[in-house]
Design goal:
With 337 residues, this protein is of the alpha+beta class. 34% of the residues lie in helices and 20% in strands. A hairpin with a 5-residue loop joins β11 and β12. The longest helix has 26 residues.
Length: 337
Amino acid sequence: MDDGIKPAVDIPVIDIAALRNGNDFGIYEVAEQLGKACKDIGFFYVKNHGISRALINTTFKCAEEFFALPLDEKLEYSMERHSKCFRGYSPVLSELADGKRNSYELMEFSVDFSSRHPYVLARKPMHGPNIWPVIPNYRETISSYIRHMNALGFDLMRGIAISLGLSQYFFHEAFHGKSFWQFRTVNYPEPMSVREMSEQMPQLEKRMEGIAVGDHNCGAHTDYGCLTILTADSPGLQVLGRNNVWFDAPVIPDAYICNIGDMLQYWTKDLYIATKHRVLTGQPRVSLPFFFQPDYETIIEPVKTVLGVPGKEYSTIKYGPYAYENYKGIYPACPTY
């Protein structure tokens, strides 16, 4: 594979105002553009998305305040120490992509279940409480941002459903009206800081012994769910084109970049493409990826009206166990039920 980076932008920018404001006439034009992007590259930018710049800026500020804390304070919120459902702080070199360790730290959140919730008491995988840093307005801001992103996710999936010739409410109904989303704030420190942080965690280094550190800040991978919606404060994201050449996906002001996940590719019988991507940056970078995923109990039955790959069988999949197995693979040091 040619590992050279193509400078041109091959990712369409789609105005989704009609999708968000209920313009029935405009929705079909947006849906057509979404469908084409999903088939051609699996990535697209969205503008006029309705998320306020003030909320985005405040969310970045909360993320930066947390990551600026001393390492020992951040470890007080460690998912490895305090969670059995992949929620909380994960330090540098503790999360995997492409089987290798990533050079970033993160805070991970998902649907918040009380510790006394029946699912939690029954030790249902991936169900449990979030871990919230004690920072003024942090929980309120992050929670507000997640609510807005969840609504955006459902709107985008309405457009994608229409692009497939389905009812616009197809995915909302398949999700049982709720998403089992994952949201994380991610900090890419400069290389020297990664080494310094790693040296302060000898026990983690011992547990991760034998797993190589990746050549990129985040290794090449596809996402597991249906749709990822991301913004970042600086460049670094790279996408593998259909010609097998990597190219940069720049940060576009006031636009989110979105990509299709494995589940949507499977749901559409490989019509829509989950494209490999990675991050390579030599400067500090903060990103806010929101993973819009089916409800844990959703049964994925591939769309009958799509032909699919000749000779390939598309059986039904229950999303929750599928996601659970994948998350165990990317967080090998974290305990689970």
